[in-house]
Amino acid sequence: MGLFQNSRHWIVTAPLLAIWAALSAGPALAQTPIKFTLDGKIEGPVAPFVVAIDKGGFKAQGLEVTIDSAAGAPESIGRVASGNYDMGFADINALMKYRDQNPGAPVKAVFMVYNKPPFAIIGRKSRGVVKPKDLEGRKLGAPPADAAYAKWPIFVDVNGIDPAKVTIVNVGIPVREPMLASGEVDAISGMSFSSALDLKQRGVPADDINVLLMADYGIELYGGAVLVNSKFAEEKPEAVRAFLRGLVNGINETVRSPFAAVESVLRRNDAAPRGVELERLRMALQENILTPEVKAKGYGGVDAARLERAIDQLGLAYSFKVRPKPGDVFDSSFLPDAADRTLD
Q1: Helices in 144-223 by DSSP H: which ranges?
Q2: pLDDT tens for each residue of 107-145
Q3: 158: how many CB neighbours lie within 10 A of its CB?
């Protein structure tokens, strides 16, 4: 029995206590499921998302988040637009092109993760590539499908480079870094936190690698952002806001301890070298996430005037059918309050 009398007192036994505790607690709170897609592999720079899962940032917001990798930004954007995924991560410039080609597509950005994109020209100092104009008279290895090379017309325009004086060598992505390492080209287009580390692994001395981050040379584009399916946002706006609050927690946890954060990456990608992913994460934090704009205004938002200029710049590299307005691609209404998205 769960209850017996001792003198004038009733004694409650452990089994009855357990029953009363269960009854008084009421039904367990349901966790809202969110299916989330990345735009590539699970590597160092996306640590904040998986840290928010492992450290309970999303769970504390009442969410059950699952994360999948993808083959690239087009796949990620398509998944969210189709409704197969509720939310995702992809380059906002790729999103603008997607929406231009698919008018009315039910997908928007709601949180800017990469305040500066990782698009870069990576050269070797020993081959004379120190500043943008040095590319004149030299060979640039550029995969036709490379997202950074797609911004080449902007980079040329804002830095006064004569494109006729640059020899573009169309290369496949797998041979891009090997060709620079062997000296077959003088520079390549690529992502800063990917190509530079690949070159180091191939034996190119670190002090010979010169990363020209396009965002440091006149390009005002934003980068990777959190996307949401419009129908999901309309039906579950609080879940979207909760996700962003959880993500802020994940970013701050990552900033506090990148070494611990990278373990969440390795848990899902055991083929990735710890040292490489840690360096990749630290580069992303320093160059793409914790920018002066973010330090001044907090995570996630965009500056409307800068986004207008970014759209104009993107128009130099992509011919819009209809030039988008900032509100067409970025919805700030789901952002946490400014005080809740500051750096810890």
Answers
A1: 152-158, 173-182, 192-201
A2: 999 999 999 999 999 999 999 999 999 999 999 999 999
A3: 16
